Amino acid sequence: MLTSQRKRELMDVLRRDGRIVATQMSVELGVSEDTIRRDLRELAKEGLLQRVHGGALPTSPALADFAARQQITPDDKAAIGRAAAAMVQPGQVVFVDGGTTCTQLIRALPRQLRATVVTHSPSIAMELMAHPEIEVIMLGGRLFRHSIVNVGAATLEAIAQIRADTYFMGVTSVHPEAGLATGDFEEAGVKRAMCQAAADTIVLASSEKLATASPYRIVGMSEISGIVLPATTSPELMQPYLDMGIALTLA
């Protein structure tokens, strides 16, 4: 079988099964595991999948830059934002991540809500200018332009001084086995720190992020309290999280 034919077969399996197991594919295609791993490396370089131990998972379209992500599933993100905003109670201190879905959360908050929002996102802070009763605490650091968020040692040091009620986390990938992930090492570290500094972590996951993987793991699924998902999410995709005891909110 030609290399191009193997790669087409691998991508067909990934679309059908949601994962590739290298040992299984080496048997099915009659080639060595090294050959399958080489094919997976080349497909990963093309951005077509995310390699993981033993095989590969679908990559996330949410790895695109901020401007491109604004065009992905905007209706899902607006609905998720409204559902998440309803969880914020007066007087709470909440971490709010950067990103397009968290922007929708801020836009859905009641104008007269009294609360404190801590964020490392300049764009989220600017959105909060329309909420005069919300105290805004900006976390400093180096600006990561791809996601328009601050990262680095200064950001982590500031997070360590805060204990929040809830962290609303944005991610690029959600997978029951691979966990929560994003596309930048330092950004993953900031998200992990906010998760550890909050009593509860709620993940905002639009449809394109589900059952995908990204290069940098944030935390495993056991570290979060709940996920806000689109109402159109299939029962098959939701069941693994329900089995883990994670609260799911359909938006």
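(ticket continues) Second input and output from the same batch:
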Amino acid sequence: MSKHDLNSPGLSSANQRIVLSAWARSLQEDAASFHVANEEPTNRRRFEIPADPTLEDWDPHTATFIQLFNISILYGPQWFLDAARDIDDEVLGLESTMLRLGYGAGARSLGEEVLYYAEDIPFYDDARLNVTSQSRDVRRLEAASPPDDTISMPLDALDHFFTIAAFGQGAEPIAGAGYDVFSDTVGQLMVLVSAAQRGKGYGTFMLARAAEECMFDGLLPQFVAQVGSEIGEKMANDVGFLLCGYRTSITFD
């Protein structure tokens, strides 16, 4: 996937502003400066944000580089910002570059990710499925999933979550999804499918259903996938998510 032309055809201008405002609020930055810079694509601007322990959504012991539409954002300790200043965005966005800059501080990778947002999604009929929002069903689903898929955050720790199963007493959960509200206007989606049910389209169904719930709540859906994940990319494309940016993060000892 190319890191060029993230602004075209892409998300509408109005929704780009919603996304940029959400990131700005989370960083306690002036959203107007993000908007102005984004509307000047010939002069791409990088915003440097020093790590701050008072920022609720950001870990002061990390460095994160985000390429979003026509701007980029680098968050991290001041020494990291200084070291990265003369490095082009395309190079800085590489996991190897971030690790090299943070080597002296014991940097470990948190991965390279793709940022997707959706404005419109297809309708999926769930009339033949039993939808629940019970923590016990989430725990059953997590027990039937690989540990690596659930270690970052349990599904029932999200602000909103649900699972699906066939109708019938004791039916095992097939898949689950949910979202956290980010900076008041964005819903950060998460999808989990049991190991036995993968490859049958349930992940795509759950992504669409969670995105629909976000929209009903007045939120813009955001989906994050690992760079190179063919499954994540296919799910996002099938549901109608638009590639809008990239994120590379490291953490320090």
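Agent notes: The longest strand covers residues 108-117. Confidence is low (pLDDT under 50) at residues 1-5. Closing as not reproducible unless the customer responds.
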